[in-house]
Amino acid sequence: MEAQEHEEYISAMAVDANGKLLLTASGDGTLGVFNIKRRRFELLSEPQNGDLTSVVLLKVGKKVACGSSEGTIYLFNWDGFGATSDRFALRAESVDCMVPITENIVCTGSLDGVIRAVNVLPNRVLGCVGQHTGEPIEQLAVAPGGRLLASCAHDQKVKFWDTSALAAIVVDDYRKKKKRGGPLRALSSKAAGGGQDFFADLRDEPEAAPGDSGDSD
């Protein structure tokens, strides 16, 4: 079988739990849907800003999240792949790779070398899991159970991070107004290996208006 609907490279793929649909993220900014059982290409989403770099399933398969080279996470409803249902702009240069830790939380890797833990719906940046200081992160992988995260970057190192505490985090829809300019929270002492000078450049965006689910960090 061969499908050539994408105009650019395919950066990532994911399959649903039933092994029916293959989802593809592409450099042309679209999400592709290929029906494996029927052996046919179903559709392409509307193009988004920047390259789509990663794709994961969340919310027990009800949501699909795609990272982008512009630092935005795009969300799609299952069976509603034509257009995004929500988007979340991170305070990051890019979202080059992404892995789910729980049904609500993903870890993202970026050009700035920071691994961010992000809650999806409600959209929050929870903090920094780890970092390859100043080196773009190439790939992330999580062990079964979501207790250990591995990362590799241009520093030619593979690092391991304890993510067991993320499973206990519950994010409320209500969000306290934070002081503008607060640093990105380090979720462990090892995550803050670069010290306060490194995190000084990682600032929260201004608080979004009530009801806007695409608030930024």
TrEMBL record:
Residues 178-217 are annotated as: Disordered. This is WD repeat domain 55. Keywords: Repeat, WD repeat. WD repeats lie at residues 3-37, 137-171. The keyword Transferase does not apply. Pfam families: WDR55. The lineage of its organism: Eukaryota, Metazoa, Chordata, Craniata, Vertebrata. It comes from the Eukaryota. SMART domains: WD40. Signal peptide: none annotated. It comes from Nothoprocta perdicaria. The keyword Repeat applies. InterPro entries: Quinoprotein_ADH-like_sf, WD40/YVTN_repeat-like_dom_sf, WD40_rpt, WDR55/POC1.
